[in-house]
């Protein structure tokens, strides 16, 4: 069944050329879908429309049976908890520890002050520890985020997203700032999350080879338009 439907979505910033033109696709529950395209194609704009960081100019987005564009503030907040965001630049709070950054995913308890672990329940802290262990970060739990390598930072980003218990991971160029080895580790974790936890993954990538290796389906966009869409098999044959 469809978890996300993007129906005829267009986006124009001011009087600029259309950043997105009639984008149309569906992502099913548990699917691993990559969006590929060159820089400036509209990938990031598309993801920002899906969790409504920005408003579409026209078209519908339906996530988990909710019309995203019609949600009021409170409903939007709830819907966003079902979407775990992963960013190219990790968006961690540099001076906080790994476990504190992870706990930022817990709904409504965000603190940017160090040493406030007492804010969180024993259960929340145990969940954070469990996630960090599973991502190979157990020994870095109390290290400051800014002392980690890029690959380690992105694993903290994944832990922070997973503690929300999301239905979908929305990943905006998660490996664009990483070396090939760290990139592989991150992609392997995302694939594993999708396979073992049944979480849907929608990921922006500019590396075609990575998309081909990890995705159930690939959507190619260029100049704000869908230019192809299909399984890695069909795409390898056609291009
Ligand atoms: P990609 O993620 O594929 O590199 P983007 O979604 O960032 O592409 O950009 C698509 C187009 O939209 C580009 O022409 C970009 O300049 C434009 N754009 C993105 N965000 C804004 C914004 N906030 N204001 C104006 N133009 C924007
Ligand atoms: P972000 O993309 O999360 O903003 P940056 O790469 O800009 O992360 O780095 C944030 C801080 O972490 C900077 O102070 C930088 O010097 C430091 N930093 C980045 N990479 C490393 C690393 N591999 N080891 C130690 N410190 C790092």
UniProtKB/TrEMBL annotation:
Keywords: ATP-binding, Cell membrane, Membrane, Nucleotide-binding, Phosphonate transport, Translocase, Transport
Domain ABC transporter stretches: 4-239
Entry-linked InterPro entries: AAA+_ATPase (IPR003593), ABC_transporter-like_ATP-bd (IPR003439), ABC_transporter-like_CS (IPR017871), ABC_transpr_PhnC (IPR012693), MetN_ABC_transporter-like (IPR050086), P-loop_NTPase (IPR027417)
A molecular function GO annotation: ATP binding
Ribonucleoprotein is among the record's keywords: no
Superkingdom assignment: Bacteria
Regions annotated as coiled coil: none
Record PANTHER family: AMINO ACID IMPORT ATP-BINDING PROTEIN, PHOSPHONATES IMPORT ATP-BINDING PROTEIN PHNC
Name recorded for this polypeptide: Phosphonate transport system ATP-binding protein
Protein species of origin: Metabacillus malikii
């Amino acid at each position: 069944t469809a978890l996300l439907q993007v129906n005829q979505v267009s986006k124009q910033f001011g009087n600029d050329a259309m950043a997105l033109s009639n984008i149309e696709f569906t992502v099913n529950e548990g699917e691993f879908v990559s969006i590929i395209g060159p820089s400036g194609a509209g990938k990031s704009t598309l993801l920002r429309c899906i969790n409504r960081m920005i408003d579409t100019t026209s078209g519908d987005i339906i996530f988990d049976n909710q019309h995203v564009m019609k949600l009021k503030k409170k409903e939007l907040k709830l819907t966003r908890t079902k979407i775990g965001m992963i960013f190219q630049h990790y968006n961690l709070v540099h001076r906080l520890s790994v476990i504190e950054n992870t706990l930022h995913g817990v709904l409504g308890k965000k603190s940017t002050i160090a040493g406030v672990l007492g804010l969180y329940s024993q259960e929340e802290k145990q969940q954070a520890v469990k996630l960090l262990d599973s991502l190979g970060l157990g020994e870095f739990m109390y290290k400051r985020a800014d002392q980690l390598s890029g690959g380690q930072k992105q694993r903290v980003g994944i832990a922070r997203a997973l503690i929300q218990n999301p239905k979908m991971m929305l990943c905006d160029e998660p490996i664009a700032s990483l070396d090939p080895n760290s990139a592989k580790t991150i992609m392997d974790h995302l694939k594993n999350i999708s396979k073992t936890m049944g979480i849907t993954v929608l990921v922006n990538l500019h590396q075609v080879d990575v998309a081909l290796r990890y995705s159930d389906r690939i959507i190619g966009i260029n100049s704000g338009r869908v230019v192809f869409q299909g399984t890695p098999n069909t795409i390898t044959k056609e291009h």
